[in-house]
Amino acid sequence: MVKAVFPGTFDPPTKGHINLIKRGAALFDTLDVVIAVNTSKRPLLTPQERLELLNESVRDLPGVKITLCNKLIVDYAEENGIKVILRGIRNVADFGYEFELSMMNKQLKSSIETVFLPTDPRYFVLRSSSIKELLSFHAEISEMVPPHVEKLLKSKTGGY
Amino acid sequence: MVKAVFPGTFDPPTKGHINLIKRGAALFDTLDVVIAVNTSKRPLLTPQERLELLNESVRDLPGVKITLCNKLIVDYAEENGIKVILRGIRNVADFGYEFELSMMNKQLKSSIETVFLPTDPRYFVLRSSSIKELLSFHAEISEMVPPHVEKLLKSKTGGY
Amino acid sequence: MVKAVFPGTFDPPTKGHINLIKRGAALFDTLDVVIAVNTSKRPLLTPQERLELLNESVRDLPGVKITLCNKLIVDYAEENGIKVILRGIRNVADFGYEFELSMMNKQLKSSIETVFLPTDPRYFVLRSSSIKELLSFHAEISEMVPPHVEKLLKSKTGGY
Amino acid sequence: MVKAVFPGTFDPPTKGHINLIKRGAALFDTLDVVIAVNTSKRPLLTPQERLELLNESVRDLPGVKITLCNKLIVDYAEENGIKVILRGIRNVADFGYEFELSMMNKQLKSSIETVFLPTDPRYFVLRSSSIKELLSFHAEISEMVPPHVEKLLKSKTGGY
Amino acid sequence: MVKAVFPGTFDPPTKGHINLIKRGAALFDTLDVVIAVNTSKRPLLTPQERLELLNESVRDLPGVKITLCNKLIVDYAEENGIKVILRGIRNVADFGYEFELSMMNKQLKSSIETVFLPTDPRYFVLRSSSIKELLSFHAEISEMVPPHVEKLLKSKTGGY
Amino acid sequence: MVKAVFPGTFDPPTKGHINLIKRGAALFDTLDVVIAVNTSKRPLLTPQERLELLNESVRDLPGVKITLCNKLIVDYAEENGIKVILRGIRNVADFGYEFELSMMNKQLKSSIETVFLPTDPRYFVLRSSSIKELLSFHAEISEMVPPHVEKLLKSKTGGY
Fold first, then answer.
1. Taking 90 as the threshold, does the pLDDT of residue E15 lie above it?
2. Which one, out of C18, F111, F121, F130, has a CA that is 20 to 30 A from the CA of F153?
3. How distant, in Å, are the alpha carbons of B128, E50, E76 from that of E36?
4. Which chain E residue has the Cα nearest residue F117?
5. What is the chain B residue with the closest CA to C93?
């Protein structure tokens, strides 16, 4: 049995994230989607809001669990018997950063593997930070996030 | 049950290949190591030699099978109920090429995923073509290939 | 009046090429599509075949002309009063190569500009050399080339 | 008639910017140079100062207009009948970022093209943020900005 | 006689830094290790602490001197008769940034060369900012910094 | 005393090569310029011709010696008491390749360092293979190679 974890900030969760969660869930026996809560950046959504949005998005996926986490991801993995860290890659620049991170995690816990899955081409341009910027311009984001995420985002940024 | 395939030329098989096969075998239920036989480049080893060298290298790994193949890898995967193509990535340049290949394979068969595993840092510099070049200079290659591979290579290139 | 040239090997012309020609024709007053005929690689199609396939593909585009050329592209541009070399870019690796080529062309003729247009995401994976390889495996290529190009390619590679 | 827009922060305008504006003005019928005013970063120069510096720099260029803008650039383009967003590219790292931005803009308004022009090699090292850092060390910047820009920058940073 | 300078923030000094200092000291007649003190980022260690940690690390290396500096590195080099700026490169992303910096420095003082040395593979994953992040998670860092650096870091971050 | 080697094919030697040789000679006590003679590619110039062209180019540089070599460069270095392999880097793509090569050489002989020097911006577009292609189009190459190299190249390719 191979368990995997998909860590991220998910602020907000995008269609790209949900696509990766579905594909990851089909590859491993269980998949923990872990929301990092102690990052220094100012979040748009509270951890609890992100947890609820993700739960609503993956309700029907067996083996998928959403959790909050304020530890190093390798520590979370080790404590939960997880062998695989799953990461999506959109392009070469993403990869450079992720490759280095994977080497650091390997150095911290050599038994845990990082596995990269290429992003679906429909979602190449999706990053949560772009969505936040688009929101500030009241741009259309329905192609980028599921309807229930869009609804919460609009209610939090002035209901335009 | 998730089955994977690890395709390559393996001319010759390196310690980097064998490291990836071991790690891949721990992640998926079965792993077919597939030797591409119809490439246009002039091989150093015959397909049969490569098959035997790999078989000797992975003898004790449950779920691993070595085969020869002269088809598109996505066709091999589909015919064998395989969901995952496993690829090792040594660096950013590797990734650019592999990313594009993965998109082409996704376009050919959308149900098959390419999964990337970062190469172990000990094997970053190992590529089969470098080993062939080093052999032509009679350089030391025992760090790069297992002993039984080194023995065959030396016997074929003049027994230096 | 700004005239542009879109040079390439077009062996074979792909849907990606035709998409770029259409978009380029909308940006400049005239667009010469120039088929390089003296490259050293062994072509699949004769220059004349490529000329006819492209002519059939762009028949309805005003301002577009297909020609054969055995000169440096900057010389062709200068002789024809062309100010812009148009190039499509699919990814970062493409760009590195094209950027260097554009600097060399600028050094040869400083008055001629190279202008880069990003490839439509639907065609990221299309390169003529991949199509040739897929043909050798009798893979499906109808997503990648127009029907009249596919027909000629199949007739030349055994009519599978 | 093809209209283009060249967006940027221009804090401060550099010789590299002015070189691109001249070259862009020669390729398209009109070129709007658009100063983004609502970025979050702390500017060195006020939007009005940047507008005046650019106006002084391009006074003699027919078809070039400098404006302030607090919208998404694709919205500005659509409202003004502009078909082309012009961007300069200095190197591969620039390109990775710009390529992704161009895909996002294409997704927001598919009718608008992003066109990339390679930076003149004399200006490869010029970015506005470097100039700000050099100013803080009282380094020589006359190679990097036009005289009237240098004069204002020096008067604002202590008249060294 | 060729003198070199190795500039950095060294917040904290890592085993990677010390490896580069040793290798650089073997290549040039003297090597000044220069701690940049006026960077805007909030440092973890005071300049004086970094100076002492580095002094303790390189005590036995002839020709190596540690100094604090609040000038442009090319000005420091010129004033001290130094011809070479030494920089370590861990990967392609590092290089893109360093290459551009080297061109800017060449433009400021054309007589001073930047020389790049590849990082030892054991230290590919080491960057000071990662160590700071790991410290905030109380992760193990003894592989990454010398014992006396680890000791000070732990005393400053709560003595865990 | 630090001795360095600058290996290459030099087919033909370019102004970029000569610029690097001059800069390298100023950094190290001696610099051996080593012409690799056993590469598989079809050369334009004989090794002897390249030796003579380089000798004429560096006649006045103390400490510089031109030699032919058919060994691994690390073996040449070790036999001649050389500690440094000098390589020029024109751009990020160059670097990816050179970085990997440097790791392989480090693995073969850990005592020998590879040192990278950025190419002078005037010579970014110069690679010997481009010059060969330009020659086949009878293009102007006097910006790219010294006069005595140009003279020999023209005499060998038809005296155009």
1. yes
2. F121
3. 44, 10, 11
4. E115
5. B96
